[in-house]
């Protein structure tokens, strides 16, 4: 029994695998440190074997040209992963806003698993988004969008850096807008609580209402913060669709 594998097919497998690995390292939920690097490599290899028959490429004329092509695929994967991470950063930003308004930002810490530097709600929201991506099969939509990029941006085609920059700028704007939409109701409640405490201090200065500010805002944040979780599945679903559209929009 003989097994023949052409040089062009082997090179295509390597190129596809490099783009996928670079994407999985950056893009959520695969960027979570709880997923071992071996699993990411095996997933990338399995996807590369499945995608390889649908890509067309020729053997490189020289080693230098092939190395440059590998670097180009790594840059494409990192760029696409960054755009996806930028979309889902809205959840973490919403938690950071709630921490700031609720008085939890004084207890900031770095979570090495999610690579998030924030307080309780920022880390909780980020972890919730990762869990929902796996539970709701949203990660499959992300992988499906990555696979479709090989049709829109075949191997050997350079990435349009201008389109990536424009998408990154729009992604930052959309991230802040989505964060405000997620945390907006609770932020309004906490702001009204500050206004009420200020008016109470003006009416009765002897009460020293601001001494109750931190306990009251923490109570409101903990009590009403759970209401935001009712909308988290729909939020993650919407962000997943936005991430896939962003990836495909760059590669067009």
UniProtKB/TrEMBL annotation:
Superkingdom, natural source: Bacteria
Transmembrane regions: 12-30, 37-55, 75-104, 124-147, 167-193, 205-232
GO cellular component: plasma membrane
Main location: membrane
Gene Ontology process terms (BP): protein targeting
Membrane topology reported for the UniProt record: Multi-pass membrane protein
Keyword Lipid biosynthesis: no
Pfam families: Bac_export_1
Keywords for the protein's UniProt record, in alphabetical order: Cell membrane, Cell projection, Cilium, Flagellum, Membrane, Transmembrane, Transmembrane helix
Locations listed in the record: Cell membrane
InterPro entries: T3SS_IM_R
Family in the record: Belongs to the FliR/MopE/SpaR family.
Name listed for the protein in its UniProt record: Flagellar biosynthetic protein FliR
Upper lineage: Bacteria, Bacillati, Actinomycetota, Actinomycetes, Micrococcales
